[in-house]
Amino acid sequence: MLIRLVGGDVIDPINGDTSQRDVWIKDGLLVDPPSGEGANETHDVSGCIVMAGAIDIHSHIGGGNVNTARLLLPEQHAAHLPRPANTPLSNAGWSTFQTGCLYAQMGFTTVVEPAMAPYTALHTHLELADIPIIDKAALAILGNDDFTLSLLRNGKSSAMLDDYVAWVVGSTRALGVKVINAGAAAAFKENVRSFSLDDTVPEYGVSSRKIVKSLQASVTRLGIPHPLHVHANNLGIAGSADTAAETIAATEGVPLHLAHLQFYGYGTEGKRKFSSEAARLAELVNANPDVSIDIGQVMFGQTVTISSDVMRQFSAIGNASPKKTVIMDGDGNGGGGIVPYRYKQDYYGSLQWAVGLELFLLINDPWRVYFTTDHPNGAPFTAYPELFELLMSSDARDAKSTELNATALGLTTLGSVRREYTLEEIAIMTRAAPARLLGLKDRGHLGAGAIADVAVYRKGRDIAKMFREAALVFKNGDLVVKNGKVTHYRWGKALRLNPPPDKAMIKRMKDYHEERYGLSLDWFTFPESAIQRPEPFAEVSCNS
Amino acid sequence: MSVAWIGSQPVSLMDAIRNAAKLLASSRCPVFTLDTDVHGTRSAIALAERLRGAYDHRMGEVLAREIALYSNSGGMFTTPGEARRRSGLIVLVGEIPAAHHDLLQAWAASQPDLGDRGKRTWFHIHGEAGVTKLARQLKAVALGAEDLSLSGALAVLRAELQGRQAGVSLANTAQLRKALARSRFPVFVFSGDSGDAPSLAMLQGLVADLNKTGRASSVFLPADDDAWGAALTSLWMTGFPPRTGFSNSLPSYDPVRWDVQRMIRDKEADLHVWVSARGCETPPKGGKVTVICLSCTEAPAAGAAVTIAVGKAGVDHDGVAYSSRVGTFHAIAATAPSLLPSVCSIVQQLAGALPGRKALPC
Ligand SMILES: [Zn+2]
Asked: A218, A236 in Cβ contact below 8 A?
């Protein structure tokens, strides 16, 4: 099957400047223009831009906590508008089925669930497997479990930590490792209520910094392509910019990814002691090539916050709207909190909105800043089209700013920042850079040999509309979206690493689970066949 | 041995499928009662959507109560594993279903290695139903009040722990107060069978109080693990727990409107798909509705228009089920693999035999 897209403006910064050229797809891959071979299928895409399929590196799309949020909030579905029915279950609001359809309609073809608790990996993968069309992946959470903390307390060798991390990544079928408020969930179980980078976990005497640094080093030694994904301490608190600054400084020459930096962009200035430190943080990121960040942009309206940062979520119970929450002290790295929340256009909401945009606009290198709302924590991912518009149009920002709290915006630099993202920068931030950050060499660009994940958008004045309804989307060469509607159902894969497990570590894990939980290890692991879809996983290789 | 029947007549599987598909296609309002593993549930929900029907679990009544605890107020919870490892003070709330007694006996036979470390003590709060056999076996200290409901007893306990006068008092609260002061992670164990919705909400209020200055949590042991697994599956597939129905193509959650037993009684439903691949039960007798029965049975279900024999997940074929042992899903391997089809494969064949012949998404 040979497909030809004719006449579009191809925006593919990895493979050269933007130009009008044809894009050719053969058997699911992108190919150079074939000589003498005619296309089986030709699409006229003049008046359109053509990009690789977009990649979202941090969006809570499936797993125990997301499902608990659905359980807590059957009324939340109103936030997810129904779409015309032409695909199974695609109208099931906030379901796995709708998630895949809505992402595909925007031209996204790969999405990473960033918080998979190792013991609930099967649940996470069952959900990911029911997300149609797109490819998925999950990051395994580590850093709050007794096994890791005991290794660090007892001064065990780094090789043993590596074996453990490799076993977790392999057995949970993860694409990388995330640490969430390192040590805090364990400390919270001992009734600790606040936790910073140099605080230590009771009973273990291990600091948060030590956990982060040890896991960062382990991830690097193991050749896991994605740097350690860090959800830092003190999320959402006035003054959290200091924590973020310390964490950025702690990279020490080794790559590290800092998640949803917006939620740490706060100082203690102003009458309300809640101000923007975005400019300072942006400067720190600009000056440190080892750090990459995603934003976690806030957009206004009702949402629900879903986080494994159980200490933080517990402290936010009072702000719940509506007034109901679930707080879960999970096994080791599991658990967390579900706190529904409405971002209002008041002082606090306006400041958070502005901090996110400041970070987007003041961090210079689009290769190190990632496009996220930390779905659904800052906003549902369905708000992405409006966010693209804000980044690409200073007029759009000015217009929105007039509706917001002027005092809050006065404490930010946003009004004076006139930068507008170019389409090339958007292509880097949402395609090329995420592929590189995750170690996915087969996507994020339109060069020959890449998988044919292609998004075509009709050019227009209305930027949000352009990105909300892709004109055409191809996933592995299958045409899946036409004029913003899903036209074809298919099943993507979960991308995973597969580091070989160490035999001695497997034995250790067996003993540990039998002794501590009274259960054999197979209660905590699962065979691939449990997913009940053909070839649900695709392997991504580690760096050698 | 026959595996399919039309009425009481043995037929080929293909004939049974064809006949059942005809009934499904001509139904104005099909309803599903589910009792199967995760994959059976997934396929049945997908079929319910295709047919614009409604679905409920066989344990729908108690499941609705458990779901309501979350969707009305939420709460603070921990996993069975964490309770076992961390808590030296376990308070049993009301009656705990027999299916979970082994789990709790196993805790009693072990010691927490984190948090409280060392010995575990047990309490039991009960109302007029009295001290349970399990509580006696575990030598739990009774926090009783035979003349109060469980929610009344919990309200009194909550007041007393906050230092408020409650008019009546429970036995042994002073002892509990001491134990709470000693424990770093007391855990209250309850199930949907423990009490009514107000008592479950009252329990969460009590746990919230304890967390103002110290730590405490609760372990939720579902009245039925498989029913809870079906609820979780339904949540990711449709965004809603059971009782959910599809009107137009939109799912809607409504525990009264989509109560399948009520819909049959009130003659809203005209076709009942009964899926029992665990208890191997046959549908309740009576009612005017046409029945398609998918059950692990060796005989046709009395009164069913079509009966198809299916295997049991974890016995005849591999499956995935929720287990309170781990507080999440786990894979179950077949213990006696057989050729009996899974619910999922029968449902997929049914969908394939419907007009349009479109495959289900799961
Ligand atoms: Zn997140």
From this structure: no
